[in-house]
Write a structure and sequence with these properties.
about 300 residues; alpha/beta; Rossmann fold; 2 domains; seven-stranded mixed beta sheet; two-stranded antiparallel sheet; 11 helices; about 35% helix; elongated; binds S-adenosylmethionine
Length: about 300
Amino acid sequence: MAPEAVLSVAQALARARACGVDRLDAMWILCQLLGQPRAWLLAHDHDVLPAAAASAWPTLLARRAAGEPLAYVLGEWEFFGLNLRVTPKVLVPRPETELLVDWALEVLDAGPGQQVIDLGTGSGALALAIRRARPRVRMLATDACAQALAVAADNARRLGLEVSFALGDWWAAAGAARFDLAVCNPPYVAAADPHLAALRHEPLAALSPGGDGLGALAQVIQGGPQHLLPGAWLLLEHGHDQAQRVSGLLAAAGFEAISTRSDLAGLARCTAGRRPAAAECRLDTTAAPESRPIARPGDPKAAQTGA
Ligand SMILES: C[S@@+](CC[C@H](N)C(=O)[O-])C[C@H]1O[C@@H](n2cnc3c(N)ncnc32)[C@H](O)[C@@H]1O
């Protein structure tokens, strides 16, 4: 669609409708383009778009009409009340992932110095949301994708949140460090899942580890005992049909208090396990002197084993 010399707000929205772009999406894009809130748009139907906005409009509409996620068209997305910059190098943070933040905030105590790791941070969504809510934790965010890590670091800088970043494969990025809490939303879509086609604009490495979708979850779980302190939690997001297998992997790796929570759609979405406290930890004979069990308010509630 060619840019128009004179285009009113109403005409711009009509163009969006003609292209098959959802009205609400079109309004979000227009609001950002004009630097105005939605209420302004509703009251300024007949206002003419500035020339720069009128000329940018067709390209933005075409991107959205081609199925590009609204978040990429806008270049930003909200997660847990944080406005995050997003690019096609990072997964668009999903609302269901906020479950992991809620769960993390329940198991973290308010004391200083707790070490938290976000494995596969993408835009930094989990690390930044937890760090903002618990400013006394020491947060490490990792990713195997350098461009994703750059987006996360930029988000941390813009939001003024102190987070360390490390590039590398799952736990390897953390070296010998050990943590009080690990959160991870790994790629978990099976290679043959037909939903992958609809997600083609997002990085495949963020969505699927290939095979049955469990490979990354298994790696993170199996590496957990070497990198988690006694009593530490591992909180994982997974596919709606993976809770039982994830619970089995956690149990096989020696985790206890394993439970699953569902998202707002009622789908089993996150599963957690806790390392046994020090006395029960067979693997802790080599624990560093500063390693310490941490007081816990109790097991996660609302357990709904997806099994
Ligand atoms: C599902 S995305 C999650 C992004 C972000 N944590 C969120 O919840 O929005 C998975 C992330 O894991 C990263 N990743 C994939 N394979 C990895 C690996 N082998 N080691 C570390 N990170 C990896 C991807 O680059 C991607 O950023």
